Amino acid sequence: MSALTPLPLADRYARFRDALFSGIEEPSAEFKLAESLSELDLQSLWFAGDFGREFTSSNGEPVKIIDFGVWNSGAGPDFMDCTVQIDGRQEHGEIELDPDARDWERHCHGANPEYRRVVLHVFLQAPEQRFFTRTVEHKEVTQIQISSAMLAQDARPNRSQAAAKLGRCSTPLREMQDSRIESILESAAQYRLERKSKRLHRAVVAHGREQAIYQALAQTLGYRNNQQPFLLMCQRQPLKMLKKRPHSEREALLFGISGFMENIRFEDTQPATRHYLRQLWHDWWRLRDDCQRWLTTAQLPHWKLAATRPGNHPQRRLGALTAMLGIWDSIAGPLMEASRWSQPSWKAALLALRHDYWATHYTLIAEAAAKPISLIGESRVQEMLANVVYPLLMPERTRLWAEYLELPAMLDNQKLRRAALRLFGDHPHSAQFQKKLHHQQGLLQLYEDFCLEDDSACATCPFPERLKEWR
Do residue 194 and residue 272 come from a single domain? Predict the structure, then answer.
C-alpha cells in the first residue's frame, strides 16, 4: 500500500499530546490479553490484521503474512488458503491459532492428517521449555508467539469511564478564546480520524479494499455492543464468496451463522415471520452442513441484547446489511476511489434502503409495526461517514476535510456527555462546541487521551496547565 497523505492538524495534536506525557511513565497495559479475550476474539483480531503482518518466528526467522486466507467453517485448521513468506521463501497452506502452544498436542493436531498442510502455528502463551509443532508427517511447523504488545492500540478493549464531574481543565478553557478551543478540537478530531484511517487501511492491506469496506460498514450496524459479532460474520462469510451466490442464499447464510434462527419455534411467530423464516430455511438447510463448526455455543457470535432499543436490535441490523448487499455497487462503488465520492448520492442510497420483512419488524419474534420503519436512519449514516467513509478517503483526497467539518452533530452517547461535562460543565461552550461532528470527535479524543489516562482524580493531570501552550 502506498503511503497515506499525512494530515497536518493530526500531527500537530500528536506532538502536543506526546509532549504532555514526556517524562511521565506510560500506564501499564490495562488488561491481560490471555484473560480478557476468548479464543474466538483472538482469531478475529488476528484475521483483521490487528497483530500486524510481519513477525519473527521462534527460530528467529522473519515471517510475513501475504494472504490471511479464509476462515475455516469446518473441521481442521482455523485459516485455509493462506500465503506466508518465511525467511524469504513463500509457502501456501493453513494457519492454526491457539491460546497456548501446547494446545497443538492437547487437541491431537499432530496426529491429524487434516493439519498436515499447516505452515504456521500462532499462539499466545508457551511453556518455558521449548515446545515444537510437528505434523503427522513429522514436519516441523514454523511458530509465532503473539502478545498484547503487538496488538494495535486502537484494537484494545475500551477503558472504564472516568468520573462524571467537572474537571480542572474547565477553568483554563473558560478563559480561552473560541478560536483556540475550535483549533484544539479540530486538531484532536483530525488525529482521531487519522487513527481510524490507519486501522481501516490495515484491513485494506490484509483483505482488499472492498472486503475492508464491507467489514467496516457492517461493524457500524452493530453499534457499540455488537461490532465484534458483525465483524466476525463478515470474516466468516467474505464478500467475494457472498457475491457469487444469489441474494436469497446470502441472506440465509448470514442469518444462519448468526445463530438467530436456531431456537425459534415457528408456532410462536406471526404469519409474516413464518413466511420469512421458511424462505430463509429453504436455502439454509442446504448450506448448514458446511457451517457446522460455527454453530456450536462457543463459536456462535456473542450477541449483547440487554438494554438494546428495538430499532437497534442486531436481527434488524442484519436485515439492513443484507439489503445493503442487494445494492452493493451503489454502496461500495463511491468508496473504491476517492475521486468517485459523492456524499449526497451515497446518503440517498442508504436512506432509501428497503426490505420486505424488516421494513415492518424489529425482531423475528416481535409483532409487525403499524407503519414502515427506516432500515438505516440519518444518525447511522452519520456514524458510517465518521468511522468508515472519511477515514478511508481522507488520506487519498485531503480536501475532503472541509466537507467533513460541515457535518452536523447527530451522535450522542454517555461517553460524549461525560467528556463535555468534564471539559466545559454548564458553560455555554458546552453547547457551542457540540454542534458539529468534528467537535464531538475532538471532545472524545481529549477525554480518552487525558481523562481516561489520568488516575489522580484530575489532581496531577498535565492537560490543564499546558493548555496555554496551544496556539
Answer: yes
